[in-house]
Amino acid sequence: MSDEPRNPAQADPWQALRGLTPARIALGRAGTSLPTAAQLDFQFAHAQARDAVHLPLDVPALATVLAAEGAEVLHVHSAASDRLVYLQRPDLGRKLDAPGAARLDAYAATGEQGFDLAVVIADGLSSLAVQRHAAPMFARIAALAVEEGWRLAPVVVVEQGRVAVADEVAQRLGARMVVNLIGERPGLSSPDSLGLYFTWAPRVGLTDAARNCISNVRPQGLSYATAVHKLAYLMREACKRQLSGVNLKDEAQVPVVEAGTGASPGNFLLPPG
Question: Please, are residues 218 and 133 in contact by the beta-carbon 8 Å criterion?
Fold first, then answer.
């Protein structure tokens, strides 16, 4: 008979699958409950998600990084005066406050109009995602604009902004298309997911049906390179077809990444070839 103390936690036979996904599977059990380690991990992830929602965006730090990428940055605010109002009144986060609207109008009045592409960065529901991933994504989008010969508007950083605020920004600047880099609602395994929302012919009053979304952009999710590859396809097709949203499907062919001597296995749901 072994003298080792008995461990009350019972391992799950699917434990090996946890190496393939951050999802909470095969957690095991202690009696009829979760093991202490799994319960503490859940509480930690929940705290991270809550913090991501309430953490203020460090606009000066973000603007400094964007300026180093050669961007002109305009900082404005939505009609939601603070975070509490933003969370309780989503409608106010979809439009600019009066000073923000006036600043963009003043910029456009200087004759700086006729942009092909506007990039908006909004804190959304995770400023952590914006702080970590918006600048690297902007650098790739700016490089794409140079490659395509598109005239790029100043980057507009919107505090307490929702997705639709980008339509007003682009309309006031006279841009024919816009992409909003915004912090997505945090999940329990992804508190820092960045979303890209693309719109052709943006204007106030458009619904989500007029937009294309690329979500979960972060190193542990959809890579920057893959995200900009998909966005480039949508933008090029939008320029050809003069539309975006539900009528524009993402049919971009993602390049196969070579790994050593073997190719990527691809999607296991699809037949080979």
Answer: yes
d(CA 126, CA 162): 11
Are β-strands 9-10 and 29-30 bridged in parallel, bridged antiparallel, or unpaired?
antiparallel
pLDDT in tens, 99-149: 999 999 999 998 767 899 999 999 999 999 999 999 999 999 999 999 999
Superfamily of 57-247 according to CATH: Ethanolamine ammonia-lyase light chain (EutC) (3.40.50.11240)
Cα gap 142→194, rounded to integer Å? 17
The residues spanned by each domain of the chain are: 57-247
C-alpha dist (Å) from residue 187 to 37, 47, 126, 258 = 19, 11, 10, 30
DSSP assignment letter at 154: P
CA distance 186 to 174: 32
Instruction: Report the C-alpha gap between 266 and 269 in whole angstroms.
Output: 9
Integer Cα distance of 47 and 194 in angstroms:
19
What is this structure's pTM? 0.82
